[in-house]
């Protein structure tokens, strides 16, 4: 099992934290992992992205240049990264900000209105955790227990007041996930 993921969105949408939690959950599950963040002007509101790989075997290429999974939190990210998703892969689309869907018939597209769901649940700053919850039924390398533990271990002491909201947002995403039969 090897899952190659590219997570992308605007700076400030929690893309790096999402990737860090996924990688940490993989480590908790005794998997090989890589987490390669892309820093630069992204921290000022531009497009941010990171690569995460979770695997049962050693990882030869640490960057998911041809991901199995893409998370696109905005239109720019979808346009930039959808062409490189492997056939048979999955593209998670933040339908709160992206009106169209990927123009590919060789991937599974999962649309999740993460901004709307997070706002309705009272955790508007946790859109990344809503998306993480929506991804959970599709992931092979980690399960909900590992994700929740990774969230607990990665929320810094200065932000412990946000822990319950992050965990609630994961649950909202799980409930919103629509797994095709």
Major β-sheet annotation: 6 strands, mixed
The neighbouring-strand order within the major sheet is 2-3-1-4-5-6
Helix percent reads: 25-40%
State the secondary-structure class: alpha/beta
Task: Assign the CATH class.
Answer: Alpha Beta
What string gives the helices and strands in order? EHEEEHEEHHHH
Average predicted confidence as pLDDT = 90
Q: How would the global form be characterised?
A: globular
CATH fold topology: Pyruvate-ferredoxin Oxidoreductase, domain 3
Describe this structure in words.
- Helices cover about 35% and strands about 20% of the residues.
- The protein has about 180 residues and is of the alpha/beta class.
- It has a single domain (about 1-175), classed as Pyruvate-ferredoxin oxidoreductase, PFOR, domain III (Pyruvate-ferredoxin Oxidoreductase, domain 3), CATH 3.40.920.10.
- Helix 4 crosses helix 6 (about 165-175).
- The longest helix has 14 residues, at about 15-30.
Give me some keywords for this one:
single chain; alpha/beta; about 180 residues; 6 strands
Secondary structure layout plus pairing:
Elements: E1 2-10, H1 15-28, E2 32-38, E3 47-55, E4 69-72, H2 75-81, E5 90-94, E6 108-112, H3 114-120, H4 127-135, H5 144-154, H6 163-176
Parallel strand pairs: 1-4, 4-5, 5-6
Antiparallel strand pairs: 1-3, 2-3
């Amino acid at each position: 099992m090897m899952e190659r993921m590219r997570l992308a969105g605007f700076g400030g949408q929690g893309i790096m934290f999402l990737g860090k939690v996924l990688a940490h959950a993989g480590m908790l599950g005794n998997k090989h992992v890589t987490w390669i963040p892309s820093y630069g002007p992204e921290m000022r509101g531009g497009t941010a992205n990171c690569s995460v790989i979770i695997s049962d075997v050693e990882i030869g290429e640490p960057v998911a240049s041809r991901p199995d999974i893409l998370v696109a939190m905005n239109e720019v990210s979808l346009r930039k990264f959808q062409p490189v998703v492997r056939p048979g892969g999955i593209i998670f689309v933040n339908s709160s900000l992206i009106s169209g869907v990927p123009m590919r018939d060789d991937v599974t597209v999962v649309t999740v209105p993460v901004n709307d769901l997070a706002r309705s649940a009272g955790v508007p700053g946790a859109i990344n955790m809503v998306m993480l919850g929506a991804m959970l039924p599709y992931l092979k390398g980690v399960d909900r227990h590992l994700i929740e533990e990774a969230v607990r271990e990665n929320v810094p002491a200065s932000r412990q007041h946000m822990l319950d909201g992050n965990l609630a947002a994961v649950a909202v995403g799980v409930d919103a996930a629509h797994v095709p039969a």
